[in-house]
Specification:
heterodimer; A: 635 residues; alpha+beta; Calcium-transporting ATPase, cytoplasmic transduction domain A; Calcium-transporting ATPase, cytoplasmic domain N; 6-stranded antiparallel sheet; 22 strands; B: Alpha-Beta Plaits; 4 strands; 32% strand
Chain lengths: 635, 72
C-alpha cells in the first residue's frame, strides 16, 4: 500500500469506529443530542473532508459536475435532511450520510489498491531500463550511466545484469533472457561476434561488449519511449465516455433537482401536502446512484491494462485507438520475405551430384569467394569452414551468368543454365522451387545446389490462428518470383497471393483490398519494415515485425512486434478483442445497473444505502473486470 | 526537447485529465501521460523554460486532480 492508501485506511477505520461506537452508546444510554450530532459530524469530516474539498475546488475551477460533487451534495443533503427531521420530530438518522460516504471511500480505496497492484505487476515486467553500464578503466570495473558511454566503448556485462547498450560481443559467451523484450521465455545463446540488444538480461557468463549505439539510439530506449508514449492516441470508446460524462452528469444533476422540486410543487397545486423531505431524499438517492465512476474509471483502465498486457507479450501497441482497429481486423496482408519467411537464403538441397555433397559445396563456396551476392554468402555459410583463398585463382565473374574460377587446379563454373552452356556442360533441370546454382568441373556437369528462403516454422500455424481469431482473408504480397511465392502460399495456406510486385504495386494492392472490404472491417498490413513504410502507413493498421531492426518501421507502424514470430499477429488481435469486449461489457453492465437503480430511486423503492452499494458495487465489478485485460497468457 | 517525468496518479481517468491539462499549458508542444508506467513525457516548445513550464503543468494538473504529483 502506498502512503496515501494507508492514510485512507486509517481514516476509514477511525470513521467506522466512531460510527459503531456512537450507535452502541445510543442504544445503551441516553446521550445528549448535541453530543451524538458532534460525533456523527466528526466521523463525517474524517471520512469525507477530501471529497468536500475536491468538490469545492472543482466548482471554483469550473469543473462542477464530477463524482466528488455528486457525493458531496448527496451526503451533505442527507445530513441536512436528518437535522431537519431532528428539529421537526426530535429524531433523526445521521447514520446514512456518514455510511454512504464511508462506503464510497472504501470502494475508492479498494479500487486504488487493486489498480496499483496490477499496475506494479506490469511495470515490473516492463522494467527494462538499465541503471548503469560497467566500463573497464585500468583493469577495474567502474559503473557509469549508460548515457555516458560512447559508441565503440567496451562494456562488461556480468551475470544477472541487464545489457545496457546495443553492441557486438568481443569476448565471452552466455545465454540471454530476452523475455522482457520479446515475451519469449527460451533463453538465447550468444557467443563472440554475435550482436546483443540492450534490455536483455545476461544469465550465465561474463560478456565483453563493444557498443554500436549510443543509449538514446539503443533498442531499450526506443522501446521505453514507445511504451511510455503509447497512451497518446485515444480510442473511440474513451472519447465516447468523456463526452458521455460531460452530458450525463449535468443531466443527472438537473433531473435530481427536478425530482426534488416538481413532485412536491405539483402535489401542493393539487392541494395535497408537499412532502418535501421525501422527495429531496429521493433526489439525493438518485444522485448517489448516478455517479458515473464505474465507467469513467474502468474504461481508460481497461485500455491501459490491455496495452500493458500486450507489451508483456512483446507486442507494442501505440495507442488505444489501434486496439479498437486491431480488434476489427478482417483482412491481414502480409509481406513474404522476412515476415512469413526468414529472409535468409539457405542451401536446401543438392541434386544430381556426381561427387560427394561436401566436395561440391566446397568447390562452389571457393569459386564464389570474391562475390558479395547473397547466394555466395549462403554457400559459404553452408560450407561452414574458413575459406582458403590461396586455393582459388583466375576468378572471372560473368555478369548474368555466374562465376568461373580455378580451384585446386580444376576449372570450376558456378552459375545458371547459360553458364553451363558456355562451358559445354549439360545441366539437369531442377523440379523444386528456389534459386538453382549449377556447378560444372572441368567442363563436366557436377550437379546443382538449390538455395531457397526458408519459411518460418510458425508461419503456417500463425495463419490458422489468425483465422481462428476471426480474420477472414490472409493475403500475401511479394516482390519474389511467382513460382516461389505460390509454393510458400500453398505451404502455409494463405488465401491469396500476389507476386512479382514492386514496392509501389504493394500500395496499389493494399488500396484495392481496402476498397473491397466492408466499412467496419479493417485491414492490417504486416511487414518487416524494410521498404514497407508506405504500405504500413496506408493500411488501416500497420504491424511491423522485429523492431530490433528498422527504425522506419517503428515510426510508420501502429503496432510493433518485438520479435519476428508471426504467431504474435493473432495474439495481438486476440488481446485487442478481449480488451474491447471488456470495455463493452463494462459500458453495458454499468449503464444497465445504473438506469435500473435510477428508476428504483426515483420511485422511492431504493434508499440511499441501496444506492451506495449499487454505485460502489458496480465500480468494483467494473475495475476487476478491467484488470482482466492484463491477463494474456491463455489467449 | 523531450523529457520524461515520474508522476503519481491514482486513477486512469485522472491520468487522462492530467494529459489534457498538460497539453493545454503554454510551452508544452505535446504531453503524454502513461498511467501504467506512471510517467509523463513532455515535449517542450522551442525556447520554453523547462522548470517554469513544468511548474505551470503541475499547477494545471493539480486543478483537475489535486492529489497528483510530478517529480521534476
Amino acid at each position: 500500500m502506498t502512503r496515501k492508501q494507508k492514510k485512507m485506511l486509517r481514516r476509514i477505520i477511525i470513521a467506522t469506529v466512531l460510527l459503531i461506537g456512537i450507535n452502541i452508546a445510543l442504544k445503551l444510554a441516553d446521550i445528549n443530542i448535541f453530543i451524538s450530532l458532534a460525533v456523527y459530524l466528526a466521523a463525517y469530516i474524517v471520512i469525507g473532508y477530501d471529497i468536500l474539498k475536491k468538490a469545492g475546488r472543482g466548482i471554483l475551477n469550473g469543473r462542477i459536475f464530477d463524482e466528488n460533487f455528486l457525493m458531496a451534495i448527496a451526503t451533505v443533503g442527507a445530513f441536512g435532511l436528518a437535522i431537519y427531521e431532528l428539529i421537526k420530530t426530535g429524531e433523526g438518522d445521521f447514520n446514512e450520510a456518514v455510511a454512504v460516504m464511508l462506503f464510497y471511500q472504501v470502494g475508492e480505496l479498494f479500487q486504488s489498491y487493486a489498480v496499483g497492484k496490477s499496475r506494479k505487476n506490469i511495470s515490473s515486467l516492463m522494467d527494462i531500463r538499465p541503471d548503469y553500464a560497467n566500463i573497464e578503466v585500468d583493469g577495474n570495473l567502474t559503473q557509469v550511466s549508460p548515457d555516458e558511454v560512447e559508441i565503440g566503448s567496451i562494456i562488461v556485462v556480468q551475470p544477472g545484469e541487464k545489457v545496457p547498450l546495443d553492441g557486438i560481443i568481443e569476448g565471452g559467451s552466455s545465454s540471454l533472457n530476452t523475455s522482457a523484450l520479446t515475451g519469449e521465455s527460451l533463453p538465447r545463446e550468444v557467443k563472440e561476434g554475435d550482436e546483443v540488444i540492450s534490455g536483455c538480461i545476461n544469465m550465465t557468463g561474463v560478456l565483453r561488449v563493444r557498443t554500436t549505439k549510443a543509449f538514446g539510439e539503443s533498442t531499450v530506449s526506443k522501446i521505453l519511449t514507445l511504451v511510455e508514449e503509447s497512451s497518446s492516441r485515444k480510442s473511440k470508446s474513451e472519447n465516447f465516455i468523456s463526452k458521455f460524462a460531460r452530458y450525463y452528469t449535468p443531466a443527472v444533476c438537473y433531473s435530481a433537482l427536478a425530482l426534488a422540486i416538481l413532485p412536491p410543487v405539483i402535489s401542493l397545486l393539487l392541494g395535497n401536502p408537499a412532502g418535501w423531505a421525501q422527495w429531496i431524499y429521493r433526489a439525493l438517492t438518485f444522485l448517489v446512484i448516478s455517479c458515473p465512476c464505474a465507467l469513467v474509471i474502468s474504461i481508460p483502465l481497461t485500455f491501459f491494462a490491455g496495452i500493458g498486457g500486450a507489451s508483456k507479450e512483446g507486442i507494442l501497441i501505440k495507442g488505444s485507438n489501434y486496439m479498437e482497429t486491431l480488434a476489427n481486423t478482417k483482412i491481414v496482408v502480409c509481406d513474404k520475405t522476412g515476415t512469413l519467411t526468414q529472409g535468409v537464403f539457405q542451401v536446401t538441397g543438392v541434386h544430381h551430384a556426381v561427387i560427394p555433397y561436401e566436395e561440391l559445396i566446397d568447390y562452389a563456396a571457393h569459386a564464389e569467394v570474391a562475390s558479395s551476392h547473397p547466394i555466395s554468402k549462403s554457400l559459404q555459410k553452408e560450407y561452414g569452414k574458413d575459406i582458403d583463398r590461396a586455393r582459388v585463382t583466375d576468378i572471372e565473374e560473368i555478369s548474368g551468368h555466374g562465376i568461373i574460377a580455378t580451384v585446386d587446379g580444376k576449372k570450376v563454373a558456378v552459375g545458371n543454365v547459360k553458364l553451363m552452356a558456355k562451358v559445354g556442360a549439360e545441366p539437369m533441370e531442377c523440379h523444386e522451387v528456389g534459386t538453382v546454382v549449377h556447378v560444372a568441373i572441368d567442363g563436366d556437369y557436377a550437379g546443382h545446389i538449390l538455395i531457397s528462403d526458408v519459411e518460418k516454422p510458425t508461419s503456417r500455424e500463425a495463419i490458422s490462428e489468425m483465422k481462428k481469431a476471426g480474420v477472414e482473408k490472409v493475403v500475401m504480397l511479394t516482390g519474389d518470383a511467382r513460382r516461389v511465392a505460390d509454393k510458400v502460399a500453398d505451404d502455409i495456406k494463405v488465401d491469396e497471393v500476389r507476386s512479382e510486385l514492386l514496392p509501389a504495386d504493394k500500395v496499389t494492392e493494399v488500396e484495392r483490398l481496402l476498397s473491397e472490404k466492408g466499412s467496419k472491417d479493417t485491414l492490417a498490413f504486416v511487414g518487416d519494415g524494410i521498404n514497407d513504410a508506405p504500405v504500413l502507413s496506408r493500411a488501416d493498421i500497420g504491424i511491423a515485425m522485429g523492431a530490433m531492426g528498422s527504425d522506419a518501421a517503428i515510426e510508420a507502424a501502429d503496432v510493433v512486434l518485438m520479435d519476428d514470430d508471426p504467431m504474435k499477429i493473432s495474439k495481438g488481435i486476440k488481446i485487442s478483442r478481449k480488451c474491447i469486449r471488456i470495455v463493452y461489457q463494462n459500458i453495458v453492465i454499468a449503464l444497465l445497473i445504473k438506469f435500473a437503480c435510477l428508476i428504483l430511486g426515483a420511485f422511492g423503492i431504493a434508499n440511499m444505502w441501496f444506492a451506495v452499494f449499487a454505485d460502489v458495487g458496480v465500480m468494483v465489478l467494473a475495475v476487476l473486470n478491467a484488470i482482466r485485460a492484463l491477463r494474456t497468457k491463455n489467449l | 526537447m523531450k523529457k520524461t517525468y515520474v508522476i503519481e496518479v491514482d486513477c486512469a481517468n485522472c491520468a487522462n485529465l492530467m494529459e489534457d491539462a498538460a497539453n493545454k499549458t503554454a510551452g508544452v508542444a505535446n504531453a503524454v501521460v502513461n498511467f501504467m508506467t506512471q510517467k509523463m513525457t513532455v515535449e517542450f516548445e522551442e525556447g520554453a523554460d523547462e522548470k517554469k513550464t513544468m511548474k505551470a503543468v503541475l499547477k494545471a494538473c493539480r486543478k483537475v486532480e489535486p492529489d497528483c504529483e510530478i517529480e521534476f
